[in-house]
Amino acid sequence: METQESAEVLHKFLARKRKLTSTEAKAIFERDILGSMAVEKGGLENPIFLVVGGQPASGKTSAIRQLLNKYDPDYTQVVSENELKSFLPDNNRARLRGSHVVEEINRFVVLTWRDQLIEYAIRHRSNIIVETRDTPNYILLARARHIGYKTELNIVATDRITSFTAMHDRYDRGLSQGSIATITSPDAKAHDLSYSVWPFIAASAVCSDSFARIAIIRRTGEIIFENKQANDPTGPMKTIGEQGVMQALMIARNRPLGKTHRDEIQNIWNKLEQSDRFARHLPCANLKSYTAEIGLALNNQVDFDPYKIPADDQRHMAEMFVRNVKRDEDFIVANIGDPYCYVSHTIKRITSCHNILQERFLGKSAIARTGPSDSTFAPQEDTTWGTPHQEPLLRSSIVKRKRTASLVNQSPQQVSGATKLQRPKFLVEVSPFSFSKRHTGAGMANDAALGGMQGEHS
User: Which residue ranges does the record assign to the Zeta toxin domain (predicted)?
Assistant: First the structure.
Protein backbone atom coordinates (compact mmCIF):
# COMPACT_ATOMS: atom_id res chain seq x y z
CA MET A 1 0.00 0.00 0.00
CA GLU A 2 1.28 3.46 -0.82
CA THR A 3 2.13 5.62 2.17
CA GLN A 4 0.64 9.06 2.61
CA GLU A 5 4.03 10.59 1.85
CA SER A 6 4.46 8.67 -1.43
CA ALA A 7 0.91 9.54 -2.44
CA GLU A 8 1.58 13.25 -1.86
CA VAL A 9 4.75 13.04 -3.97
CA LEU A 10 2.75 11.44 -6.79
CA HIS A 11 0.03 14.10 -6.53
CA LYS A 12 2.56 16.94 -6.72
CA PHE A 13 4.35 15.35 -9.67
CA LEU A 14 1.13 14.82 -11.61
CA ALA A 15 -0.13 18.31 -10.77
CA ARG A 16 3.03 19.88 -12.19
CA LYS A 17 3.15 17.67 -15.23
CA ARG A 18 -0.47 17.29 -16.23
CA LYS A 19 -2.23 20.62 -15.83
CA LEU A 20 -3.08 21.19 -19.48
CA THR A 21 -2.59 24.57 -21.09
CA SER A 22 -5.29 25.93 -23.38
CA THR A 23 -3.07 25.15 -26.37
CA GLU A 24 -2.59 21.53 -25.27
CA ALA A 25 -6.29 21.12 -24.55
CA LYS A 26 -7.23 22.51 -27.96
CA ALA A 27 -4.79 20.16 -29.69
CA ILE A 28 -6.21 17.11 -27.90
CA PHE A 29 -9.75 18.14 -28.78
CA GLU A 30 -9.04 18.68 -32.46
CA ARG A 31 -6.70 15.72 -32.90
CA ASP A 32 -8.19 13.03 -30.65
CA ILE A 33 -11.71 13.89 -29.48
CA LEU A 34 -13.18 15.05 -32.79
CA GLY A 35 -11.55 12.15 -34.57
CA SER A 36 -12.99 9.48 -32.27
CA MET A 37 -16.19 10.95 -30.83
CA ALA A 38 -17.59 13.51 -33.27
CA VAL A 39 -20.87 12.66 -34.99
CA GLU A 40 -20.53 11.73 -38.66
CA LYS A 41 -23.70 13.19 -40.16
CA GLY A 42 -26.11 16.07 -39.61
CA GLY A 43 -28.37 18.49 -41.43
CA LEU A 44 -31.51 17.32 -39.61
CA GLU A 45 -34.64 19.43 -40.04
CA ASN A 46 -35.96 18.74 -36.52
CA PRO A 47 -32.98 17.76 -34.36
CA ILE A 48 -33.29 16.96 -30.66
CA PHE A 49 -31.14 18.08 -27.71
CA LEU A 50 -31.62 15.52 -24.96
CA VAL A 51 -30.12 15.87 -21.47
CA VAL A 52 -29.90 12.68 -19.39
CA GLY A 53 -29.04 13.50 -15.80
CA GLY A 54 -28.60 11.84 -12.44
CA GLN A 55 -26.07 11.18 -9.71
CA PRO A 56 -23.00 9.00 -10.39
CA ALA A 57 -23.90 5.32 -10.98
CA SER A 58 -27.60 6.10 -11.31
CA GLY A 59 -27.76 4.32 -14.67
CA LYS A 60 -27.50 7.19 -17.14
CA THR A 61 -25.49 5.22 -19.69
CA SER A 62 -27.96 2.33 -19.59
CA ALA A 63 -30.83 4.77 -20.10
CA ILE A 64 -29.03 6.39 -23.04
CA ARG A 65 -28.62 3.02 -24.74
CA GLN A 66 -32.37 2.57 -24.61
CA LEU A 67 -33.00 6.12 -25.86
CA LEU A 68 -30.57 5.61 -28.74
CA ASN A 69 -32.93 2.99 -30.16
CA LYS A 70 -35.12 5.93 -31.27
CA TYR A 71 -32.36 7.74 -33.17
CA ASP A 72 -29.90 6.96 -35.93
CA PRO A 73 -26.46 6.77 -34.23
CA ASP A 74 -24.78 8.25 -37.32
CA TYR A 75 -26.81 11.44 -36.78
CA THR A 76 -26.64 11.49 -32.97
CA GLN A 77 -23.83 13.02 -30.93
CA VAL A 78 -23.49 11.45 -27.47
CA VAL A 79 -21.53 13.63 -25.04
CA SER A 80 -20.21 12.01 -21.86
CA GLU A 81 -17.93 13.76 -19.38
CA ASN A 82 -16.61 10.40 -18.15
CA GLU A 83 -15.62 9.55 -21.70
CA LEU A 84 -13.90 12.91 -22.14
CA LYS A 85 -11.86 12.42 -18.95
CA SER A 86 -10.19 9.43 -20.56
CA PHE A 87 -8.46 11.85 -22.97
CA LEU A 88 -6.57 13.54 -20.11
CA PRO A 89 -2.92 12.43 -20.30
CA ASP A 90 -1.90 10.15 -17.38
CA ASN A 91 -5.37 10.24 -15.84
CA ASN A 92 -5.89 6.48 -15.92
CA ARG A 93 -2.41 5.87 -14.48
CA ALA A 94 -3.12 8.28 -11.65
CA ARG A 95 -6.51 6.78 -10.85
CA LEU A 96 -5.10 3.26 -10.73
CA ARG A 97 -2.87 4.61 -7.95
CA GLY A 98 -5.83 6.09 -6.12
CA SER A 99 -5.27 9.68 -7.26
CA HIS A 100 -7.94 11.95 -8.76
CA VAL A 101 -5.61 14.91 -9.10
CA VAL A 102 -5.37 14.87 -12.92
CA GLU A 103 -9.11 15.17 -13.48
CA GLU A 104 -9.52 17.57 -10.55
CA ILE A 105 -6.99 20.10 -11.84
CA ASN A 106 -8.36 19.76 -15.38
CA ARG A 107 -12.04 19.99 -14.46
CA PHE A 108 -12.62 23.09 -16.57
CA VAL A 109 -10.75 21.54 -19.49
CA VAL A 110 -13.24 18.66 -19.52
CA LEU A 111 -16.20 21.06 -19.32
CA THR A 112 -14.75 23.05 -22.22
CA TRP A 113 -14.38 19.89 -24.28
CA ARG A 114 -17.98 18.98 -23.47
CA ASP A 115 -19.30 22.34 -24.63
CA GLN A 116 -17.10 22.35 -27.75
CA LEU A 117 -18.41 18.92 -28.74
CA ILE A 118 -21.99 20.13 -28.25
CA GLU A 119 -21.29 23.25 -30.33
CA TYR A 120 -19.78 21.09 -33.07
CA ALA A 121 -22.98 19.02 -33.20
CA ILE A 122 -25.17 22.14 -33.18
CA ARG A 123 -23.29 23.56 -36.17
CA HIS A 124 -23.96 20.33 -38.05
CA ARG A 125 -27.59 20.12 -36.84
CA SER A 126 -27.12 16.62 -35.46
CA ASN A 127 -29.10 15.10 -32.61
CA ILE A 128 -27.42 15.63 -29.24
CA ILE A 129 -27.61 13.45 -26.12
CA VAL A 130 -25.70 14.81 -23.13
CA GLU A 131 -24.96 12.55 -20.18
CA THR A 132 -24.29 14.61 -17.07
CA ARG A 133 -24.31 14.45 -13.30
CA ASP A 134 -24.26 18.25 -12.97
CA THR A 135 -26.36 21.22 -14.02
CA PRO A 136 -26.71 21.37 -17.82
CA ASN A 137 -25.36 24.31 -19.82
CA TYR A 138 -28.45 26.52 -20.15
CA ILE A 139 -26.72 28.93 -22.53
CA LEU A 140 -26.16 26.16 -25.08
CA LEU A 141 -29.69 24.86 -24.49
CA ALA A 142 -31.16 28.29 -25.23
CA ARG A 143 -29.02 28.68 -28.33
CA ALA A 144 -30.04 25.25 -29.63
CA ARG A 145 -33.71 25.88 -28.96
CA HIS A 146 -33.53 29.23 -30.72
CA ILE A 147 -32.41 27.56 -33.95
CA GLY A 148 -35.04 24.83 -33.90
CA TYR A 149 -33.83 22.08 -31.58
CA LYS A 150 -36.40 20.32 -29.40
CA THR A 151 -34.92 20.21 -25.90
CA GLU A 152 -35.74 17.45 -23.42
CA LEU A 153 -34.67 16.61 -19.88
CA ASN A 154 -34.63 13.01 -18.65
CA ILE A 155 -33.75 12.48 -14.98
CA VAL A 156 -32.80 8.92 -14.05
CA ALA A 157 -34.54 8.31 -10.72
CA THR A 158 -32.32 5.88 -8.82
CA ASP A 159 -32.33 5.63 -5.03
CA ARG A 160 -29.27 6.81 -3.14
CA ILE A 161 -28.44 3.42 -1.61
CA THR A 162 -28.31 1.68 -4.98
CA SER A 163 -26.22 4.29 -6.80
CA PHE A 164 -23.82 4.74 -3.87
CA THR A 165 -23.28 0.98 -3.71
CA ALA A 166 -22.96 0.62 -7.48
CA MET A 167 -20.40 3.43 -7.61
CA HIS A 168 -18.07 1.55 -5.26
CA ASP A 169 -18.78 -1.91 -6.69
CA ARG A 170 -17.99 -1.05 -10.29
CA TYR A 171 -14.82 0.77 -9.24
CA ASP A 172 -13.62 -2.38 -7.49
CA ARG A 173 -14.37 -4.45 -10.60
CA GLY A 174 -12.70 -1.84 -12.78
CA LEU A 175 -9.55 -2.15 -10.67
CA SER A 176 -9.64 -5.92 -11.13
CA GLN A 177 -9.63 -5.38 -14.90
CA GLY A 178 -6.80 -2.86 -14.75
CA SER A 179 -8.66 0.00 -16.43
CA ILE A 180 -10.91 2.60 -14.84
CA ALA A 181 -10.51 5.37 -17.41
CA THR A 182 -14.24 5.82 -18.04
CA ILE A 183 -15.48 4.81 -14.58
CA THR A 184 -16.35 7.53 -12.08
CA SER A 185 -14.15 7.29 -8.99
CA PRO A 186 -16.07 6.72 -5.75
CA ASP A 187 -16.47 10.13 -4.14
CA ALA A 188 -19.11 10.29 -1.41
CA LYS A 189 -19.36 14.08 -1.31
CA ALA A 190 -19.63 14.42 -5.08
CA HIS A 191 -22.23 11.65 -5.18
CA ASP A 192 -24.40 13.22 -2.47
CA LEU A 193 -24.11 16.69 -3.99
CA SER A 194 -25.14 15.42 -7.42
CA TYR A 195 -27.99 13.42 -5.88
CA SER A 196 -29.20 16.62 -4.22
CA VAL A 197 -28.79 18.87 -7.26
CA TRP A 198 -31.28 17.05 -9.49
CA PRO A 199 -34.44 17.76 -7.46
CA PHE A 200 -33.52 21.46 -7.66
CA ILE A 201 -32.97 21.20 -11.40
CA ALA A 202 -36.32 19.41 -11.78
CA ALA A 203 -38.17 21.95 -9.63
CA SER A 204 -36.62 24.86 -11.54
CA ALA A 205 -37.11 23.36 -15.00
CA VAL A 206 -40.88 23.15 -14.59
CA CYS A 207 -41.12 26.94 -14.45
CA SER A 208 -38.59 27.70 -17.17
CA ASP A 209 -38.68 27.41 -20.95
CA SER A 210 -35.39 25.52 -21.20
CA PHE A 211 -37.05 22.18 -21.95
CA ALA A 212 -40.02 21.27 -24.11
CA ARG A 213 -40.32 17.97 -22.25
CA ILE A 214 -39.31 16.80 -18.77
CA ALA A 215 -39.35 13.10 -17.92
CA ILE A 216 -38.56 11.01 -14.86
CA ILE A 217 -37.23 7.66 -16.07
CA ARG A 218 -35.67 4.46 -14.82
CA ARG A 219 -32.25 3.21 -15.97
CA THR A 220 -34.10 0.83 -18.32
CA GLY A 221 -35.49 3.86 -20.17
CA GLU A 222 -38.99 3.24 -18.80
CA ILE A 223 -40.92 6.50 -18.39
CA ILE A 224 -42.27 6.99 -14.88
CA PHE A 225 -43.66 10.46 -15.51
CA GLU A 226 -43.43 13.20 -18.13
CA ASN A 227 -44.34 16.83 -18.67
CA LYS A 228 -44.42 18.16 -22.21
CA GLN A 229 -45.61 21.21 -24.09
CA ALA A 230 -49.05 20.63 -25.51
CA ASN A 231 -48.73 22.26 -28.92
CA ASP A 232 -45.84 24.54 -29.79
CA PRO A 233 -42.47 25.54 -28.27
CA THR A 234 -44.11 28.44 -26.45
CA GLY A 235 -47.16 26.51 -25.29
CA PRO A 236 -47.98 25.51 -21.71
CA MET A 237 -46.63 22.33 -20.14
CA LYS A 238 -49.04 19.41 -20.18
CA THR A 239 -48.76 16.92 -17.34
CA ILE A 240 -48.99 13.25 -18.30
CA GLY A 241 -50.08 11.55 -15.08
CA GLU A 242 -51.64 12.61 -11.83
CA GLN A 243 -48.59 13.84 -9.95
CA GLY A 244 -46.06 16.57 -10.54
CA VAL A 245 -42.42 16.24 -11.51
CA MET A 246 -41.16 16.59 -7.94
CA GLN A 247 -43.57 14.06 -6.47
CA ALA A 248 -42.73 11.59 -9.24
CA LEU A 249 -39.00 12.00 -8.64
CA MET A 250 -39.23 11.72 -4.85
CA ILE A 251 -41.50 8.67 -4.96
CA ALA A 252 -39.26 6.89 -7.47
CA ARG A 253 -36.07 7.63 -5.50
CA ASN A 254 -37.59 6.61 -2.16
CA ARG A 255 -39.59 3.60 -3.25
CA PRO A 256 -38.69 0.77 -0.82
CA LEU A 257 -36.27 -1.84 -2.12
CA GLY A 258 -37.25 -5.49 -2.31
CA LYS A 259 -35.68 -8.06 0.00
CA THR A 260 -33.56 -9.58 -2.78
CA HIS A 261 -32.32 -6.11 -3.71
CA ARG A 262 -31.42 -5.36 -0.08
CA ASP A 263 -29.59 -8.68 0.28
CA GLU A 264 -27.61 -7.97 -2.89
CA ILE A 265 -26.55 -4.58 -1.57
CA GLN A 266 -25.43 -6.05 1.75
CA ASN A 267 -23.53 -8.77 -0.10
CA ILE A 268 -21.69 -6.14 -2.17
CA TRP A 269 -20.49 -4.28 0.92
CA ASN A 270 -19.39 -7.53 2.57
CA LYS A 271 -17.35 -8.26 -0.56
CA LEU A 272 -15.82 -4.76 -0.63
CA GLU A 273 -14.73 -5.06 3.00
CA GLN A 274 -12.74 -8.16 2.06
CA SER A 275 -11.20 -6.71 -1.12
CA ASP A 276 -7.48 -5.99 -0.72
CA ARG A 277 -7.26 -4.05 -3.97
CA PHE A 278 -10.17 -1.84 -2.93
CA ALA A 279 -8.58 -1.20 0.47
CA ARG A 280 -5.55 0.26 -1.30
CA HIS A 281 -7.75 2.98 -2.82
CA LEU A 282 -10.13 3.85 0.01
CA PRO A 283 -9.32 4.30 3.71
CA CYS A 284 -10.65 1.38 5.75
CA ALA A 285 -12.33 3.83 8.14
CA ASN A 286 -14.44 5.22 5.30
CA LEU A 287 -15.45 1.76 4.13
CA LYS A 288 -16.53 0.67 7.60
CA SER A 289 -18.49 3.90 8.02
CA TYR A 290 -20.27 3.47 4.69
CA THR A 291 -21.10 -0.17 5.48
CA ALA A 292 -22.62 0.80 8.82
CA GLU A 293 -24.66 3.64 7.33
CA ILE A 294 -25.90 1.47 4.47
CA GLY A 295 -27.02 -1.08 7.06
CA LEU A 296 -28.95 1.61 8.90
CA ALA A 297 -30.53 2.88 5.70
CA LEU A 298 -31.63 -0.63 4.76
CA ASN A 299 -33.22 -1.02 8.18
CA ASN A 300 -35.41 2.00 7.43
CA GLN A 301 -36.91 0.26 4.39
CA VAL A 302 -40.53 -0.89 4.60
CA ASP A 303 -42.58 -3.29 2.48
CA PHE A 304 -44.76 -0.62 0.94
CA ASP A 305 -45.70 0.17 -2.67
CA PRO A 306 -46.20 3.96 -3.05
CA TYR A 307 -47.85 3.45 -6.44
CA LYS A 308 -50.86 1.78 -4.84
CA ILE A 309 -53.48 3.03 -2.38
CA PRO A 310 -52.43 1.57 0.99
CA ALA A 311 -54.72 -0.91 2.71
CA ASP A 312 -55.87 -0.23 6.26
CA ASP A 313 -53.27 -2.59 7.71
CA GLN A 314 -50.49 -0.75 5.82
CA ARG A 315 -51.07 2.60 7.48
CA HIS A 316 -48.00 2.31 9.68
CA MET A 317 -45.82 1.45 6.65
CA ALA A 318 -47.28 4.42 4.76
CA GLU A 319 -46.32 6.68 7.66
CA MET A 320 -42.77 5.30 7.60
CA PHE A 321 -42.55 5.90 3.86
CA VAL A 322 -43.64 9.54 4.28
CA ARG A 323 -41.04 10.00 7.03
CA ASN A 324 -38.35 8.57 4.73
CA VAL A 325 -39.35 11.07 2.03
CA LYS A 326 -39.09 13.86 4.62
CA ARG A 327 -35.61 12.67 5.60
CA ASP A 328 -34.64 12.71 1.94
CA GLU A 329 -35.93 16.28 1.55
CA ASP A 330 -33.88 17.37 4.55
CA PHE A 331 -30.82 15.58 3.20
CA ILE A 332 -31.17 17.30 -0.18
CA VAL A 333 -31.54 20.80 1.27
CA ALA A 334 -28.67 20.25 3.73
CA ASN A 335 -26.30 19.12 0.98
CA ILE A 336 -26.99 21.63 -1.73
CA GLY A 337 -25.77 24.94 -0.26
CA ASP A 338 -25.40 28.07 -2.40
CA PRO A 339 -26.86 29.25 -4.67
CA TYR A 340 -29.90 27.00 -4.48
CA CYS A 341 -30.61 27.28 -0.75
CA TYR A 342 -31.90 30.85 -1.13
CA VAL A 343 -34.30 30.16 -4.01
CA SER A 344 -37.34 29.99 -1.77
CA HIS A 345 -39.96 28.87 -4.28
CA THR A 346 -37.70 26.01 -5.38
CA ILE A 347 -37.12 25.00 -1.77
CA LYS A 348 -40.88 25.03 -1.29
CA ARG A 349 -41.47 22.60 -4.15
CA ILE A 350 -38.99 20.14 -2.68
CA THR A 351 -39.90 20.37 1.00
CA SER A 352 -43.64 20.14 0.35
CA CYS A 353 -43.49 16.72 -1.31
CA HIS A 354 -43.88 14.75 1.91
CA ASN A 355 -46.93 16.83 2.85
CA ILE A 356 -48.59 16.03 -0.48
CA LEU A 357 -47.80 12.33 -0.09
CA GLN A 358 -48.93 12.41 3.52
CA GLU A 359 -52.34 13.73 2.56
CA ARG A 360 -52.56 11.30 -0.34
CA PHE A 361 -51.80 8.19 1.71
CA LEU A 362 -52.98 9.14 5.19
CA GLY A 363 -55.36 12.08 4.92
CA LYS A 364 -55.06 15.55 6.44
CA SER A 365 -55.56 14.30 9.99
CA ALA A 366 -52.33 12.30 9.81
CA ILE A 367 -50.08 15.36 9.75
CA ALA A 368 -50.04 15.77 13.51
CA ARG A 369 -49.50 12.05 14.15
CA THR A 370 -46.51 11.52 11.88
CA GLY A 371 -44.58 14.31 13.56
CA PRO A 372 -41.33 15.92 12.42
CA SER A 373 -38.49 14.14 10.72
CA ASP A 374 -35.70 12.83 12.92
CA SER A 375 -33.16 14.01 10.38
CA THR A 376 -30.25 16.12 11.61
CA PHE A 377 -31.49 18.93 9.38
CA ALA A 378 -35.14 19.97 9.47
CA PRO A 379 -35.64 23.45 7.96
CA GLN A 380 -38.46 25.55 9.34
CA GLU A 381 -40.63 27.13 6.68
CA ASP A 382 -42.14 30.59 6.86
CA THR A 383 -45.75 31.32 5.97
CA THR A 384 -45.02 32.64 2.48
CA TRP A 385 -42.66 30.49 0.41
CA GLY A 386 -41.02 28.33 3.05
CA THR A 387 -37.46 29.66 3.08
CA PRO A 388 -35.47 27.79 5.75
CA HIS A 389 -34.53 29.96 8.75
CA GLN A 390 -31.40 27.98 9.54
CA GLU A 391 -28.30 27.64 7.40
CA PRO A 392 -27.66 24.36 5.58
CA LEU A 393 -25.24 22.03 7.32
CA LEU A 394 -22.02 20.82 5.75
CA ARG A 395 -22.40 18.18 3.08
CA SER A 396 -22.94 14.82 4.67
CA SER A 397 -22.13 11.26 3.80
CA ILE A 398 -24.54 8.72 2.38
CA VAL A 399 -27.07 8.80 5.24
CA LYS A 400 -27.83 11.90 7.31
CA ARG A 401 -28.90 10.20 10.57
CA LYS A 402 -27.53 9.49 14.02
CA ARG A 403 -25.93 6.11 14.39
CA THR A 404 -27.31 3.65 16.90
CA ALA A 405 -26.18 0.39 18.41
CA SER A 406 -28.72 -1.47 16.32
CA LEU A 407 -26.74 -1.38 13.08
CA VAL A 408 -27.00 -4.61 11.16
CA ASN A 409 -23.75 -5.92 9.71
CA GLN A 410 -24.43 -9.25 8.09
CA SER A 411 -21.56 -11.62 7.48
CA PRO A 412 -21.21 -13.22 4.07
CA GLN A 413 -22.55 -16.45 5.58
CA GLN A 414 -25.79 -14.71 6.50
CA VAL A 415 -26.52 -13.71 2.91
CA SER A 416 -28.72 -16.15 1.05
CA GLY A 417 -27.05 -18.64 -1.27
CA ALA A 418 -29.20 -17.48 -4.16
CA THR A 419 -27.80 -14.00 -3.80
CA LYS A 420 -24.21 -15.25 -4.00
CA LEU A 421 -24.76 -17.37 -7.08
CA GLN A 422 -25.54 -14.50 -9.42
CA ARG A 423 -24.34 -10.98 -10.08
CA PRO A 424 -26.76 -8.39 -8.73
CA LYS A 425 -28.93 -7.40 -11.66
CA PHE A 426 -29.58 -3.89 -10.39
CA LEU A 427 -25.92 -2.94 -10.38
CA VAL A 428 -23.85 -1.70 -13.28
CA GLU A 429 -21.50 -3.90 -15.28
CA VAL A 430 -18.02 -2.91 -16.39
CA SER A 431 -17.37 -3.58 -20.06
CA PRO A 432 -15.31 -2.13 -22.92
CA PHE A 433 -18.48 -0.39 -24.16
CA SER A 434 -18.42 3.35 -24.56
CA PHE A 435 -19.90 5.86 -26.93
CA SER A 436 -16.52 6.68 -28.47
CA LYS A 437 -15.71 5.09 -31.82
CA ARG A 438 -12.12 4.53 -30.65
CA HIS A 439 -13.43 1.97 -28.15
CA THR A 440 -16.12 0.38 -30.26
CA GLY A 441 -14.51 0.06 -33.65
CA ALA A 442 -17.33 0.77 -36.07
CA GLY A 443 -19.22 2.67 -33.40
CA MET A 444 -22.64 2.37 -31.85
CA ALA A 445 -24.32 0.75 -34.85
CA ASN A 446 -22.01 -2.26 -34.88
CA ASP A 447 -22.04 -2.47 -31.09
CA ALA A 448 -25.82 -2.64 -31.08
CA ALA A 449 -25.80 -5.27 -33.81
CA LEU A 450 -23.42 -7.44 -31.79
CA GLY A 451 -25.55 -7.07 -28.69
CA GLY A 452 -22.77 -5.46 -26.67
CA MET A 453 -25.06 -3.22 -24.70
CA GLN A 454 -24.40 -4.38 -21.16
CA GLY A 455 -21.75 -1.87 -20.14
CA GLU A 456 -22.36 0.97 -17.70
CA HIS A 457 -20.22 3.97 -17.00
CA SER A 458 -22.24 6.48 -15.05
Answer: 45-177
> What average pLDDT is seen over the chain?
75
Q: Which are the contacts of 3, defined by CB distance < 8 A and separation ≥ 6?
A: none
Residue 142 carries which DSSP code? H
Residue among 253, 63, 170 nearest 423 (CA): 170
**Per-residue confidence at 341, pLDDT binned at 50, 70, 90?**
low
Query: What DSSP string describes 143-187?
Result: HHHHTTPEEEEEEE---HHHHHHHHHHHHHHHHHHT--TTS----
- Do 35 and 429 contact (CB within 8 A), yes or no? no
**Predicted confidence (pLDDT) at residue 360 exceeds the cutoff of 90:** no
| Total residue length of the chain | 458
What single-letter amino acid sits at 290?
A: Y
Q: Residue 426 has what pLDDT?
A: 43
How far is 26 from 22, CA to CA, in rounded Å?
6
Amino acid (1-letter code) at residue 452: G
Pairing of strands 76-80, 48-53: unpaired
Cis peptide before 136 (omega within 30 of 0): no
Residue 125 CA to residue 148 CA, distance in Å, equals 9
Per-residue pLDDT at 451 exceeds 50: no
Q: Per-residue pLDDT tens for 270-303?
A: 999 888 888 877 766 688 889 888 988 888 777 7
Q: Look at residue 143 in the predicted model and tell me its pLDDT.
A: 94
**0.85 exceeded by the pTM?**
no
> Comparing C-alpha atoms, which of 74, 82, 101 is closest to residue 90?
101
Contact between 167 and 210 (Cβ < 8 Å): no
Domain ranges of the chain: 4-255+435-450
Is the model more confident about 354 or about 451?
354
CATH number of this structure's domain 4-255+435-450, picked from the four choices 2.40.128.260, 3.40.50.300, 3.30.420.270, 3.30.565.10: 3.40.50.300
261-295 residues labelled b (16+ CB within 10 A) or e (exposed): bbbbbbbbbbebbebeebeebbeeeebebbbbbbb
CB 379 within 8 A of CB 333: yes
Burial of 139 (0-12, 13-18, 19+ CB in 10 A): exposed
